[in-house]
Amino acid sequence: MKYDIFENLIRLLPNFYKAFWQTAVMLGISVPVSVIFGGALGLWLFTTGKNQIYANRHIHQILGFIINFMRAYPFVILMIMMEIPSRALVGTTFGPVAASVSLSVAGIFYFARLVEQNLAEVPKGVVEAALAMGAKPPTIMTKVLLNEARAGLVRSITILIIAILGLSAAAGLIGGGGIGDLGINYGHHRFMSDVMWTVVILLSIIVITMQEIGNYLADRLDKR
Predict the structure, then answer these.
(1) Which residues belong to any copy of the ABC transmembrane type-1 domain (predicted)?
(2) What is the reported pTM?
(3) For labelling, which of 25, 26, 72, 213 has a CA lying 20 to 30 Å from the CA of 92?
C-alpha cells in the first residue's frame, strides 16, 4: 500500500487548529505584557544610567544585575519555578494561559535590555536640547527618548515576538501546547516526519511574515 504523505496531516488537522489557537493565546498574552512592563523596566534602567535624567548608580547596578540574572535563567527551569505564581495569578499551572505567565516573565527582562539599547542610540544632543528648552523628565522620556527610538523599538518588538514564539515550543512541558509542541509530540516522539516538516514550514512562514511586517513598520517610522 502506497504511503500517503498527507495522511497524518489530514488526520491531525484538528490538532493543528488547536495548536494555532494555543500559540495565539500565548503570544497574545505574553507579548503585550512583555512590551508594557519590559518597556517600563528598560526605560527605568536607561534613565538611571550615568549622565541620564534620573542618574543613580546603585539603582542602575541593581536593575542591571536583576535583568542579566533573569535573562540567563534557563526557561525550562523558570517554568517550573513559576508554577506557584501561575496558580496564584491565573488559577492553574496547566495550559497556554499558565504558560503565558512564564513567557511573560522571560519576555519582560529580555525586552528591557533591548529597550535600553534602543534608547542608548538616541543622540545626546536631542535630549540636551530638550533640557535646554525646559522640558521636564517625563516629557523627555515620552516625547524625546521613546519618540526618537520608535523605529528601533518596533524592530525590538519584532525580535521579542519571534523569541517568545521559539520559547513557546517548551510550553508543552506544562501542557501549554502550541505549534512547536505539536511538532515535538508527533513529529519527533512518534516519528511523523511529515508533521515535523509541516510544523517547521509553518513556523518559518510565521517568523518571516512577522519580520517583514516589523521591518516595514520600522522603515515607515524611521526619520533618518
Answers:
(1) 20-218
(2) 0.90
(3) 72
